[in-house]
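Quick note —
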Amino acid sequence: MSTKKHLPKITARKQVAKSGLFAIEQIDLSFSNGESREYERIPGKGSGAVMIVPMLDDETMLLVREYCAGTHSYELGFPKGLVDPGEEPSDAANRELKEEVGYGAENLTFIHRVATAPAFFDAQMTIFLGENLYPEKLEGDEPEELEVVPWRLTDYQQLLAANDFNEARSIAALLLVKDHLGGI
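Predicted structure written out below.
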C-alpha cells in the first residue's frame, strides 16, 4: 500500500525559450520535505492527440509509412494526429483515419491514454481501436500522400522486428490492441 504524496508547490514559472513548435517553461518547485528545485518542461497546448489502430477486417491492421523529421527517415506506424479545439477525441480519431488512410470507422473503442515523456512533456495521446471501416477520404495536412500498409495482426512479432517500426506509442498501441482483441 502506498502513501499518497503531495504535489510540490510551484513557486515561480517563466518561459525560457520558444519556437514555432513548442515553448520551454522553467518552474521553481518547493517539495513537502523542504527541498527546492528548478525544472524545465514543455507545457502542453491544445486538446491532446489521438492514435488509431484501424482493423480492415478481423485479421488485418492498416498502418501508414510517413516521413519523420526527428529521425529524418520514413517510419511505419498507426494513423495519428492532434485533437482540434472543441473536438472530441473520438471525432478527431475518425477524421484522422479519413485523412491518412481513406477510411472512417463505424466503431471506435477507447483503448488507453498514454503520456510521452511525462517528466518533461505535458502531452496526452488517446489510443482507439477502429473497426467496421468504410471508405471515405478527407483532405489532410500531410506534405505528401502517405503509404498505407496492411499488416496481419497475427504477424505482430514481424512488425515489432521491422527496422522502420520504432515509435514507442505505436508499439504500445499494437500490444494494447492485441491484448484487447484476445491476445491473438
